[in-house]
Design brief:
With 243 residues, this protein is mainly alpha-helical. The chain is built from 9 helices and 5 strands. The chain has helices spanning 11-30, 47-62, 64-78, 83-93, 100-119, 123-126, 143-166, 177-192, 220-227; strands at residues 129-134, 137-142, 196-201, 206-210, 214-219. A 3-stranded mixed sheet has the order 4-3-5. Strand 3 and strand 4 form a beta hairpin. Helix 1 runs antiparallel to helix 5, helix 2 (47-62) packs antiparallel against helix 7 and helix 8 (177-192) crosses helix 9. The longest helix has 24 residues, at 143-166. The chain starts with 10 loop residues before the first helix and ends in a 16-residue tail after the last helix.
């Protein structure tokens, strides 16, 4: 497929992916047993902390008061660091008292509500600009991009992190995970702007082409892990994509 043929995620399709990803993440979390203290590919977090982060993000979607709280407390916690670092610290710290069973209960109850809330974000809020560091470069995002794209990618990648940490099966399908990967590949291509032939293997894979350039063959999940900073890549694979 020509990479320019990958359509941008519109609001409706983004909502479908968000709902499905939250369901899959909740399913994986409900399957956990004695896995909560296992370390993940995010060095500061074990499985429990990662679930607390995702739950915190979901709860900020369904409650404007919680969102404002996380923004303010996260700003104080971040100091000179990026705001997102402070927000994730607050999400994890403020849920550290919850038992694992309570984490599961709250995640299960919140996931569908969070997906609906993201879909209903009002147009004026979708246009709000946000500053974010990507690979050492400060970018300006919109709240709509954050809600439609990044929150789904973040949850998707953390589902991969937890499956890798615990040995639990990672559910991958072409219609869902393949669409997430295609969107990542398209953004990666726009960011570096160079010709390539990309062959991604596995259930979420596909072939994407832009001219006749660097040839890359890689597992689709590993491709995304590298672009997210969880692995190292050379050439065009050194181009980061936000998750």
């Amino acid at each position: 497929m020509a990479i320019e043929s990958v359509p941008l995620l519109d609001r409706a399709r983004a909502a479908v992916l968000a709902e499905a990803e939250y369901e899959r993440f909740a399913d994986l979390v409900r399957s956990l047993d004695d896995d909560w203290t296992r370390r993940t590919d995010c060095p500061a977090w074990d499985v429990r902390a990662m679930v607390a982060h995702v739950l915190g993000a979901m709860e900020s979607h369904v409650s404007p008061r919680e969102l404002v709280h996380q923004l303010r407390a996260g700003g104080r916690a971040a100091g000179d660091r990026p705001l997102i670092d402070g927000i994730t610290e607050v999400q994890v710290a403020e849920r550290a008292h919850l038992s694992t069973s309570r984490l599961v209960e709250r995640l299960t109850a919140t996931a569908p509500r969070a997906a609906r809330a993201r879909r209903r974000l009002p147009a004026p809020l979708r246009r709000i600009p946000l500053k974010q560091d990507v690979g050492g470069v400060m970018e300006t995002w919109t709240m709509g991009y954050l809600y439609d794209v990044i929150y789904t990618r973040d949850t998707w990648m953390h589902r991969i992190d937890i499956a890798r940490a615990t040995g639990r099966p990672l559910v991958l399908t072409a219609d869902h995970d393949g669409r997430v990967v295609a969107d990542v590949a398209a953004e990666w291509a726009r960011r570096h702007g160079r010709p390539f032939r990309l062959h991604l293997t596995g259930p979420a894979g596909g072939t994407y082409v832009a001219g006749d350039g660097e040839e890359i063959t890689l597992d689709a999940v590993e491709f995304c892990r590298i672009l997210s900073g969880r692995g190292s890549g050379t050439g065009l694979l050194a181009q980061p994509v936000p998750f």
